[in-house]
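RECORD CONTENTS
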Amino acid sequence: MNTSAVAKLLGVSPSTVQRWVRQLELQMERNELGHYLFKEEDIDLLKQVQDQLSKGMILQNVNVHDGKSRRGIMKTTVSINDKAAELIMEKVEMLEQRLNGKADDVVSYQLLQHRREIEDLQEVIKSLTERIEKLESKQNSPKTGLPAENLLIFDKEVPKKKAKRKNIITSLFGF
């Protein structure tokens, strides 16, 4: 059978069948064009793979043929010799110390700036408190002896203005 027929039989896509063959390194026959040809044993093997995958096993741990467990291989990076690693670690530590020093400087500056702002606000609050006390003392004193200009605004009555009558022509043309 070809890949498409096996995929239909198993209910998966042809690319899934090809991926299983490649990743599990299954030895399958190929035709002259390089397409896989599956025999009954191969189909039974792929059914076993599908059953194991449907039970939640990952592809790298699927058992094939004689029951050997297949594990994925992780490529390791090129190891760095110990002196180079130590040099890199020293540089990283030095950079961390410099970074911490800069962070401390910034925080100190911000604290000083905030302290100045708080002191300024306290001065404003103090002056506003004094003004409120003066106004309250003026308001509590008898009003008879005070001139009209010393009265608070909300104590004065403002006369209402009479509404002007507009001419019809000016209201139409906006003059």
The chain has five helices and four strands. Residues 82 and 88 are 10 Å apart (CA to CA). Strands lie at 29-30, 36-37, 63-64, 68-69.
